[in-house]
């Protein structure tokens, strides 16, 4: 096996897992192939958070099946949340797959490859590694895709059990990495030229809680971790995602207000605006409590950008419930919102709930979410025109005419001026759309 092709789907955590998969395979001597038909090993790193993710993957696996028929020696491996959720059923659904493993077993990828090659002999049984593992993939080396930015996993798993979510089943319980381990990893990244790190976890606000629950009373909480990272010399920016509103503490808001390197952006999924629906989702807060957190954040952190996730068509959602979601959007004045139709996931409580909403109603509601989200985002971007914003320049803009970067509010900015990628510059904002700013250094 000389070359590998990797296709990854889903969230930032999966993007980071993809960087680790690259490092693991290249440490085995494999080289990257850009197209599946020129690779000996095909790897698909999967997401199963919504039906659409499964459907997208099925298309790619169709190609893998064809390439496997053309060359029986080719190896097809699948990693991530889908095989973890389905296990044996996954192999019955995709019998040409030579091996699979879940997110907690990423470190066993080389072992999986060797076992898959062996099992690919006639009569062999494809290996599947799905057991809960002690080692956290956060400790694995990553082959980073971006020179000046890096993902840093601070914890894995989730114990919130929102009724629509499959993550606790596929990524296991919350586990935090040690503060010293994270700080030394970040020091290494800064020495390697990284200017901005994004801390990753399903619910970063609960960082350290699992350790404190296990009797390690002195274990640091999230604000303490941010303060330790703010002290890392040469680190310009710290971002984090994702935050659960019920754990957005005063200590965290103070850290955001006080620490120069912590960027003024919080991704705070609301999911819905009706207390009845929030309770059925098992979100653990009311719309009023959510808004109180947003207002406290905006009062303490000028220019903070608050973005969110919203679900349309949760089982039992009435037109009045939905109207309350639109109301919450206006009251929170979201700077950006990611909108989804409810997608029943096997094994979640919400999939069994009565009152499943008709597909056309879900679609019609999500379109209304999108229209309002764009209106609010455009208003938010336009407030920057004529002002100055700090931008980390990432590289050439999509149209190739200038440069492209990201503000501290996590907004994409197209920048003109003679600047090197990796530089952090002040721009004069001269224009805005609902997704980007334009400006000159
Ligand atoms: S907080 Fe809820 S939605 Fe987020 S990962 Fe955990 S269970 Fe899923």
Describe the structure.
The chain is α/β, with parallel strands linked by helices. The chain has 14 helices and 19 strands. The strands form 5 sheets. It has a 6-stranded parallel β-sheet with strand order 2-1-3-4-5-6, sandwiched between helices. The protein has a 5-stranded mixed β-barrel with strand order 15-16-17-19-18. Helix 9 packs parallel to helix 10 and helix 13 packs parallel to helix 14. The longest helix has 24 residues. The termini are far apart. Bound molecules: iron/sulfur cluster (SF4). Iron/sulfur cluster binds next to helix 6.
Q: What spatial form do the alpha-carbon principal axes imply?
A: globular
Number of strands: 19
By helix and strand content, what is the structural category?
A: alpha/beta
Bound compounds: iron/sulfur cluster
Q: Which regions are unreliable across 5 or more consecutive residues at pLDDT < 50?
A: none
CA gyration radius, whole angstroms:
22 Å
Number of helices: 14
What's the end-to-end separation, in Å?
48 Å
Report the average pLDDT across residues. Answer: 94
Major beta sheet, strand line-up: 2-1-3-4-5-6
SSE topology sketch:
Layout: E1 3-8, H1 12-27, E2 31-32, E3 41-46, H2 51-70, E4 75-80, H3 81-86, H4 88-93, E5 99-101, H5 109-119, E6 128-129, E7 149-153, E8 155-156, H6 167-171, E9 175-176, H7 179-191, E10 196-200, H8 209-213, H9 222-230, E11 237-241, H10 250-258, E12 265-267, H11 275-280, H12 287-300, E13 305-312, H13 319-332, E14 336-341, H14 359-382, E15 388-396, E16 403-407, E17 412-416, E18 424-432, E19 436-440
Bound molecules: iron/sulfur cluster.
Iron/sulfur cluster binds at residues 158, 160-162, 165, 167-168, 202-203, 244.
